[in-house]
Amino acid sequence: MSEAFAVDRLFARHGPAYRWYATVTVMLGTLSVVLASTIINVAVPAIMARFAVAQDQAQWLVTAFLAAMTVGMLLNAWAIARLGSRRAFTLAMSVFIAASLVGGLSRHFPVLVAARAVQGLTAGMIQPHALIVIFQVFPVARRGQAMGIYGMGVILGPAVSPALGGVLVDAISWRATFFVVLPACVLALGMAWRFLPAHGGTARSRLDWPGVVLLAAGMVATLWMLAALQRRGPGDALVLAGMVGGPLLLVAFVLRQSRAVEPLFDLALFRAPGFGAGFALSIVMGAGLFATTYLTPLYFQQAAHMSPTAAGFMLLPAGIAMALVFPLAGHLSDGRASIAVIATGLGLFIGATVLLVASSGTTAAVWLIAWAALARVGIGAMMPPVTTASLRLLEGAAMDRGSGIINFGRQFGGALGVNLCAVLAQYVNDAQLHAGTAVSRAAAHEAGFDAAFWALAGLFALAFWPLAHMRRSRRRDAG
Fold first, then answer.
1. pTM, to two decimals
2. Which of 227, 237, 349, 441 is deepest in the core (most CB within 10 A)?
């Protein structure tokens, strides 16, 4: 049975309302995995205390999820082609539910990290389903409306997750952050059997398994090496192996993609002038988005001595501000103002991080809320125009492949940003405590977070260089 025929049969069975049944199904799945990706951030201090781990170890709760999600996104298209939409979605959702249960019940930190990695892998396979189903069930004239609903759902999930996570940690336990998404997951699983098309996949679908393995192994080795460098030292045999082997595996992945008939990562797109600059901006944007999502709740709890609930509600205005600025940035990115909007977003984010550095544990809460919101507004201003400006440089079918690469860059940047910022914060924190001076633990935390925020500000300042390259490329195209 073809996919189009399967969709037509479901329309015949359920009527015009079917498109909304299908959309709600995949949106429940998307909202669940987006919520799971961010809700744990406010629980990190409690998990660090429970398992007696430092920040350079605890960051794996986020890094493992993001890195695995990057790989899962590359598996999604193959899984749908091979298994069909319904089976691919339900398989991924079933594994996600199992991983959430294992994570919530785990008694050992490595098991917890492994559960997060499996959550991330399946989340990467679940999230793209929403866009695919929307394009299947909505006519061209109504896709914009559906995409608006989808976009608001994806943005509002992270907006409410810190507050929800903080309440759960204080009222129940950090384990509740793994269980809270399960009702929506089970509902999405049941609805998928009824409303997603059950067309059969094709055995002709091929996946570049060696490429997947090279990418996954390269990312894990590189991220582990960066995290272990401080604790083990550069002379450690395993650190040296990761230092050499991780980058080599990533280079091998790139070389394979340059020769593959059906590459996971189409390097030919980088021949378009300015697209490489857009990819670099997406990496920077991902680093800022996910690193601040990880660092800010820790900062509020460890340096400003707030409870998880208070820290979560402190971040609620920031999430709402990002959700509100997102549609405006998307509207402006349709015109020639996209470069100016990106530059504004970079400037706002740099200003927010500098203001967070200037803050301290005694700074009034209203100012901390304002600086966190300003950082989110900067990211929200960047996201639509970075994607739009990058894809505008491509033509035809290349735009679909380009979209996947831009999303890949954002996720990869997020994993790298969280990893490096957590390691830097822990390094400075330990250096302050062992300097021989009378430094309080809160002051040491403050110094560590300041170093991480300075690093992000520097990274975003460097991003003006690829932005200038993208601007020159657009001028050449216009001429």
1. 0.85
2. 349
